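Q: How would the structure tokens look for this protein?
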Amino acid sequence: MASRFLRVFTAIVLARILGAEGYGIYAYAGSIVMLLSVPSELGLPRLVVREVAANRALARWGYVRGLLQRAMQAIVLFSVGIIALAALVGPMLSQRIEALDWTTFAWALLLVPLGSLSALRGSALRGLHHIVTGQLPGALLRPIVFLLLISIALWAIRPLEPYQAMMLSVISATAAFAVGSWLLWRALPSEVYRAIPVYETRRWMASALPFGLLAGITLINSQTDIIMLGLFSSASDVGIYRVATQGAMLVSFALMTINTVLSPNIASLHASGDWDGLQRLITTSARATIIISVPVALTLIIFGRPILATVFGSEYSTGALALAVLCTGQLINAGFGSVGNILNMTGHERDSVVGVGIGAASNVILNLMLIPRWGIEGAAIASAVSILVWNSWLTIVLYRRTGLLSIAIYPFLINKNSRVKH
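A: Here is the predicted structure in token form.
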């Protein structure tokens, strides 16, 4: 929760300092780098949560050590290749896309290995059931350091350019990575250091591939609207829309927070065969998500225009309608609960790939149809509809595969004694 509010506060500061056009350039580079991080991570962070949690329960420390070593090696290798390729293509694209500034993008490329390795370390800590410790570097330390650096830069440099803001983001990410590495070193049981590493590279990569595809498709769902706005519209529109998406993410912060805690517990309950306990866990979490999300969504939908004008600046108030649509989409997402996360942690990650892939395809098609006609509102509609599509699909698949339902109204929808346990 603190992380989500810090990110929104950071977005407020950057939006005011850089203006709509400058913030659009900064956000566009960040969106592209997020997509580039998918092939560098290869789905390994999500796999690490599941495998570390399961092997910890079985005291198979050699597998834990081998997995962490292989995952780090793979991420470093693929990150270097991605940066090299992007460095060749980036300058040519920056001449054709207004929102893509090469200097800002070049700094942002450094976040590919930093972000991927940080995600790996956080996942390992979560798999070891150090839930809070696993989140601290990226969720709290990084935005706090970033805000401090921005404060210092504003005192020394005026005005602040988008590439300078991205440079400060890289520095804060480096600090978070260093602290995260130290925390993992302290948290790993001594048995891990004494164990002989055991490698199951083929099995791990086979399992990680669906996770990687799922992460990529999920990011396409979340970043397609930003990327395509940059292709069809101005940097200012990208900045305004980015502000609207940041506001809408407040609706989903409860789901994101609960998902972080749920992942290792779902894996553990599934490994032990406690299906009743698993259903109770996901039903309770779904209800908590709805209780927190509805008031936030209604506030932003009703008072979106004055909130945007007061908090971010008057030039962003034109994003009020897009904000309302995006909030509706995020409320739908919260209503379906942690459906994708449950599939991933119970060994059905391939089904998640198919469902989210369907949503991503609909998102791309709708963005192509709606952005040229309605601009940022069209992008918002495309995003909300795609959320409804993939959540509906995954809910049906989850019940068919496991007999579990992730939605909050589970006890009223079906007789729990009819649930099939696989």
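The CA atoms of residues 318 and 332 lie 23 Å apart.

The chain has 17 helices and no strands.

Upvote if useful.
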